[in-house]
Amino acid sequence: MISTGDLSLLPDIDRLKALMQSLALLDAILCPEWEYRYHSFNAHWDIHEAMASIRDGSGDDLVVLFTPAGAVLKGFAHESPMSPYAADPPCVWPGVLDQIPAIFTSFLSEPAFKMTDTTFCIWRTYADTAWQHGVISFPAEDDPDGSGALLAMLDGEPRTYQQWAESYYERAVPLDAVTHIYQHQPLTAEIVTALNANVSLADVEGDRVEIGYP
Fold it and tell me: CA-to-CA distance for 23 and 205, rounded, in angstroms?
């Protein structure tokens, strides 16, 4: 399981970016209503920056910022032992945000990311050989910061998404179509129809452009 306890299975920066584009496009095809989607991706968040997010609809979320320097992400699991709201007054758990490299300072000050709602934060620059997190004294509980649950989809395995999507969207989802998009092969009308017969290639063109998918 990917978590702050073991980040070795989390894809590197570029593969993570491509994966999150794929997840966002799959959701856009399966769920035309943006507000009900689990995954999103904005390839044009800012000049030379892209932003991806996961929202579970129950108050937990994950935000990833991709920059020329690398990537930084933060998650919020509101019922985890490390929730800021488990303290009085509320505060982010010590160490979670304290060692973020200065090159990602803008991430910390971005109002849209709501850093006060954070239970874990990890980062990686292109000079790093692995994902990093701060020096933290974790509670002695399973998945204390909720990272295991929020990072589970990011293992890069098409079957992981297929099984999740069939449960979440309550429909059959063909594995070969998911694999096609995981591999970043060009989007075609046939792939769109295989995933959702009620959606056309033209219907998802705006989403494809926003996501930056080929």
Answer: 15
> 3-state class of 55 per DSSP?
strand
Q: Give one DSSP letter per residue of 83-100, joined into a string.
A: -GGGSSS--PPTTTTTT-
Over its C-alpha atoms, the chain yields an Rg (Å, rounded) of 17
Summarised one tens digit per residue, pLDDT across range 117-173 is 999 999 999 999 999 999 999 998 889 999 999 999 999 999 999 999 999 999 999
The CA distance from 118 to 121, in Å, is 7
Token pair for 6 = 């073991």
What tokens were used for 19? 């994966």
Number of C-beta neighbours around residue 175 at 10 A: 14
pLDDT digit string (tens) for 110-127? 999 999 999 999 999 999
For 175, the token pair is: 């594995």
Residues pairing with 64 in the sheet: 52, 73
Query: By the 8 A CB rule, do 126 and 70 touch?
Result: yes
| DSSP label of 49 | E
* Residue 150 tokens, joined: 């929020």
Can you list the alpha helix ranges (DSSP code H) found in the chain? 13-30, 105-109, 147-150, 158-169, 175-182, 189-195, 205-211
What single string gives the DSSP state of each residue in 56-84? -SSS-EEEEEEETTEEEEEEE-TTSTT-G
